[in-house]
Amino acid sequence: MSSQLPVVVVGGGTAGCMVSSHLANNTSHPIVLIEPGELSEHDDNSRFFDVLADSELTQQIHDVVQARALGGGSAVNGMLLTGEEPDFARGLTRMANEEDIGFMGSFLLQNGGRFTRLWWNGGRWNPGRAVHHLEEERRISIIREEVVSLEISSGSVVGVRTGSQVVPCARVVLCAGALVSPQILMRSQVMPEQEIIPQNHYSVSVVAALRERNSSLFDTAVIKEILLSSGEMFMVNAYERVSAELSNFGLLTVSHMNPSHGLKDEDAMAVARDIATELADSLRLCKEVGDVVVDEEVRPLSHVSSTCISITDGNGRVQHVDGLWVADASVLPRVPPCTPAAPVTMEALRIAQIITRELT
Ligand SMILES: Cc1cc2nc3c(=O)[nH]c(=O)nc-3n(C[C@H](O)[C@H](O)[C@H](O)COP(=O)(O)OP(=O)(O)OC[C@H]3O[C@@H](n4cnc5c(N)ncnc54)[C@H](O)[C@@H]3O)c2cc1C
pTM for this structure? Predict the structure, then answer.
């Protein structure tokens, strides 16, 4: 057993699993991960809504669904990779094809859509599995609790407080997600008390009653990107059903992908509603479809980000506290104009490499 104080990673989600695996594989420091969620048992199930229906793996924070699982958002997300495939995921993702989709995907393809890449290659890309193996090999220890706050002494982080203990540490990397990481920093008086307003994508939905029950391989695999001459970007996603229980309703979401301040923009949402209305009119012409409704409400996606940029430098280091970093979606300079798991992971890897250089 090493006598060194550990590096503690708070939160074993998309970023936290990447950081703890990288540190365990590239430094000799003991690594302790504090993550309340369990490893998902659904990584072989290609249907997103089946996984979301497991209430053990998610939690609602404010008005947004967030993961509570080892692997975080990557264990429960829609598996869409709409941007470029990053280097670390070569061979671990694949392009969707005709065999993956049902009526809603085909409809969007015929209306200007394209297949997207999926975080799937015979199984879901869940970085929690790599961490689980490292735990079995005793290269990472996992404490299955929630972190409440950090212990700071003379300007340095010295411990992490959970509901039942204080874990002494040499350094801390905060990866509890863009809604919880700032809460922990506020409770630790590292960040001034304030309302947490994440950047995000907002969407308008169209729900269509389907005459035949859908049994596609994936719940979503086709998107359509719309770029206006004003520079505004929208993304339409086709979902084969609206939830695990409601398989006979298809769904289209129209999301604003590049909000200028990362916040809901009413003018852009009016454009999203126009796009949704036009798609609804086309759906009504299809013999496979019954009633079609455009949802009046604008809803946030689970793409929260950028809540800790004011207190970190460009490399995730928290200003004025030694030994403390944030490496999750909180430190993305803005919400990305694509599905965010790849940018989150790439940023986490970059920060982990910087910490590794400091430790070695
Ligand atoms: C339902 C859903 C669908 C999505 N669909 C897509 C998609 O199709 N494609 C895509 O690219 N992205 C998608 N995303 C977004 C993407 O998954 C997230 O942007 C990404 O996972 C964020 O990573 P993170 O590390 O910042 O946070 P998370 O991955 O959420 O990790 C945070 C971790 O912290 C843990 N935690 C919470 N509170 C505490 C605490 N007090 N102490 C310790 N640990 C704590 C949580 O259990 C969790 O494991 C989706 C997300 C969700 C939730």
Answer: 0.97
